[in-house]
Amino acid sequence: MVLYTEKLKVIHITTHISLRQFLDTLNQPRIETVIGVADRFLRRVGYPRPRIAVAGVNPHAGENGLFGDEEIRIVAPAVAAMRAKSGGDRPLSAGHGVYAVSRRHVRHGSGDVSRPGAYSAEAAGIL
């Protein structure tokens, strides 16, 4: 699913499933696939060098395992694998990911949108 506005595009890792199902479904190959799909989609619609932010699963992207270890075990390795192919950043919390995108601090790389009108940079987020 893509939530698409002029300034921000959000692509979800999963859609319409419970949080419990999401955690059971989350895996590195799925994240890598969605990052690749996002990159290809954005290039097709006119963004030759899309900036992709990947949001963390847990509050504060897990705080190094304090709030969950999905970022350490699953998200970070997927981002690292894709970064090796095209460049990118470490997982961000969803709120920080959107903030960083709005401030142009994110290059190729990983948020779900709470205030779509607040963003000034064109970017994509993956949650």
From TrEMBL:
One of its GO terms (molecular function) is NAD binding. It comes from Klebsiella pneumoniae. It comes from the Bacteria. This is 4-hydroxythreonine-4-phosphate dehydrogenase. The keyword NAD applies. Keywords: Metal-binding, NAD, Oxidoreductase.
